């Protein structure tokens, strides 16, 4: 998590890290989208109340690396989340995102992801960014294509989702040389 | 800290490193530099037994994964093998290397089989993964012998001393491993 992150996406939309004051809004949004999100994300099962989200936000400590623990806001309303996780290898980032149903179709996730990718490549020295999406998660896969990422394979049973189930994931990848050609 | 100690028979022992192994680990890496450099980024950053000691200590401090283990043959360190565990997705990734003199005897395959049994039977993982450089045919042959499915090629998926190499990803699920063990 990077407390200084604040990216304007245009149209009053902003990407910034959650703060403890956002726990209630985060829980309410996850709870309102529970059935949609549980198809793709195991963490939905851990969202049991606002305090579970306060604990999640608390656990996002400033490590000077990972661009994770971010919400997408439209005005004062939380619309979803978008992370670029930089973990084990310091030159690989992994994108992840979700959106409230009411905000789908406005290009918010694509713009948020583009902004985080630009920061990842330009400021954080990433060489490769990847994204794993459920094989049947066509909206996420469409985002990957819009981001110019290349489909690299299918990881059988690699995605743990709600209810203790597993789904197949498509992996998309992009290296910095190819990103430079797109911007 | 999860430590292992397995006697696989025929003089083969797979066990976690202790700090006392730092010199032996350095010596086998140092004797295999040309052999390891094309594939293993840690070859050129391993400059003394102090570096291997630091690596072993970091493995001993690791709470979940079982990263730092050696493969011994008749008391001689022949290579290394590690299991990286991702608790969130309930999956594991295996990685390994072998000294040149010990290649071609199935040591890595046997060690991986024991790790997969542990991963699925004892740790309750759902899936095991392996990444091999696309040009590392010996490593890819291990994945094939283990019955793993080739799942795709990741662009510049492996960082090495001279840059990046495409990597081939392999996977196998718990039920697939069990079906294979019953047949075997």
For the CA atoms, what is the radius of gyration of chain B? Answer: 16 Å
- Structural class given helices, strands, pairing of chain B? alpha+beta
First and last CA, distance of chain B: 32 Å
The low-pLDDT segments of chain A are none
Radius of gyration of chain A: 15 Å
Mean pLDDT of chain B: 96
DSSP summary, beta strand count of chain A: 8
* Low-pLDDT segments, ≥5 res of chain B: none
Order of helices and strands of chain B: EEHHHEEEHEHEEH
Going by helix content, strand content and strand pairing, the class of chain A is: alpha+beta
Q: CA-to-CA gap between the ends of chain A?
A: 26 Å
Name the pair of protein chains with the most residues at their interface, and give those residue counts: A-B, 22 and 21 residues
Shape descriptor of chain A reads: globular
- What percent strand of chain A? 25-35%
Give the overall form of chain B: globular
Strand order within the widest beta sheet of chain A: 1-2-3-4-5-6-8-7
Give the tally of β-strands of chain B.
8
Largest sheet of chain A: 8 strands, mixed
Quick rundown:
The complex is a heterodimer of chains A (183) and B (184). Chain A has 183 residues and is of the alpha+beta class. Helix content of chain A is 31%, strand content 33%.
What does this structure look like?
The complex is a heterodimer of chains A (183) and B (184). In chain A, 31% of the residues lie in helices and 33% in strands. Chain A has helices spanning 23-32, 34-38, 50-59, 108-122, 138-146, 176-182, and strands at 7-10, 13-17, 70-74, 77-86, 92-99, 128-134, 150-160, 166-175. Chain A starts with 6 loop residues before the first strand and ends with a helix. Chain A contains six helices and eight strands. Chain B is an alpha+beta fold and 184 residues long. Chain B has six helices and eight strands, in the order ββαααβββαβαββα. Chain A binds chain B through residues 42, 88-89, 91, 127-128, 130, 150, 152-160, 166, 171, 173-175, and chain B through 84, 88-91, 126-127, 129, 149, 151-157, 159, 164, 169, 171, 173.
């Amino acid at each position: 998590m990077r407390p200084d992150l604040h990216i304007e996406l245009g149209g009053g939309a902003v990407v910034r890290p959650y703060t403890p004051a956002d726990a209630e809004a985060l829980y309410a949004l996850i709870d309102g989208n529970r059935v949609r999100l549980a198809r793709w994300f195991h963490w939905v099962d851990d969202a049991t109340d606002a305090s579970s989200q306060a604990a999640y936000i608390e656990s996002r400590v400033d490590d000077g690396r990972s661009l994770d623990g971010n919400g997408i806001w439209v005005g004062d309303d939380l619309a979803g989340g978008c992370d670029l996780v930089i973990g084990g290898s310091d030159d690989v980032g992994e994108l992840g995102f979700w959106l409230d149903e009411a905000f789908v179709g406005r290009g918010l996730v694509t713009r948020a992801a583009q902004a985080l990718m630009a920061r990842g490549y330009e400021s954080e020295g990433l060489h490769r960014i990847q994204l794993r999406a459920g094989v049947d998660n066509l909206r996420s896969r469409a985002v990957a294509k819009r981001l110019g990422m290349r489909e690299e394979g299918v990881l059988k049973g690699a995605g743990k989702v709600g209810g203790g189930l597993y789904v197949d994931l498509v992996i998309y990848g992009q290296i910095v040389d190819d990103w430079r050609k797109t911007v | 800290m999860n430590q292992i100690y397995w006697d696989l028979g025929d003089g083969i022992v797979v066990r976690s490193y202790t700090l006392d192994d730092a010199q032996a680990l350095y010596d086998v890496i140092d004797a295999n530099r040309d052999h390891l450099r094309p594939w293993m980024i840690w070859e050129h950053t391993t400059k003394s037994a102090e570096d291997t000691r630091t690596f072993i200590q970091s493995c001993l401090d690791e709470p979940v994964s079982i990263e730092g283990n050696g493969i011994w043959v008749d008391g001689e360190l022949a290579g290394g093998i590690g299991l990286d565990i991702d608790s969130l997705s309930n999956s594991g990734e295996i990685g390994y290397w072998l000294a040149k003199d010990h290649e071609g005897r199935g040591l890595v395959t046997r060690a991986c089989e024991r790790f997969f049994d542990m991963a699925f039977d004892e740790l309750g993982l759902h899936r095991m993964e392996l990444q091999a450089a696309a040009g590392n045919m010996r490593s890819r042959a291990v994945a094939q012998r283990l019955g793993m499915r080739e799942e795709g090629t990741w662009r510049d998926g492996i960082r090495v001393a001279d840059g990046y190499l495409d990597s081939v990803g392999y996977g196998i699920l718990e039920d697939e491993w069990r079906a294979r063990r019953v047949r075997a």
